[in-house]
Amino acid sequence: MPTPATSLAHLTDEITRCRLCPRLVAWREQVAREKRSSFRDEEYWGRPVPGFGDPHARILIVGLAPAAHGGNRTGRVFTGDRSGDWLFGALHRAGLANRPESVHADDGLELHDAYIAAAVRCAPPANRPTPEERDTCMPYLVRELALLERVHVIVALGAFAYEATWRVLGRAGIELPRPRPRFAHGLEVATPRATILGCFHPSQQNTFTGKLTQPMLDSVMTRACALADR
Question: Which CATH number do you get for residue 173?
Answer without folding.
Answer: 3.40.470.10
